[in-house]
Amino acid sequence: MSYKIDPMPPAARVADVAAAVAATRAGGARNEPISATAETDRLSLTGDAEGLKAMGRELGAAPAGIDMGRVNALKAAIAEGSYKIDAQAIAARMLDLDRELGR
Fold first, then answer.
1. Which NCBIfam families match (predicted)?
2. Helix (H) or strand (E) holding 47
3. pTM, rounded to two decimals
């Protein structure tokens, strides 16, 4: 006894043809790329976001206002182990920064 091996039954072929006809009527085959659509999405930033964006650009630019001599001296003092940490001064500056950012 032998059976014919057919990878796709006849009913599936009919369904494929019907789908292709429907796609053609709808304006093209399903495997074609979709053409560009109208722009509908927009992004608008708040004033705060615009300010943060501008601040990021400024900070990302050249290190204006940074005394590189002092930075290098501090790096050397830390590397030597002679830098003294003043916890009170650090805490005071952190509170100042918190007040400034809270405005």
1. FlgM_jcvi
2. helix 47-60
3. 0.31
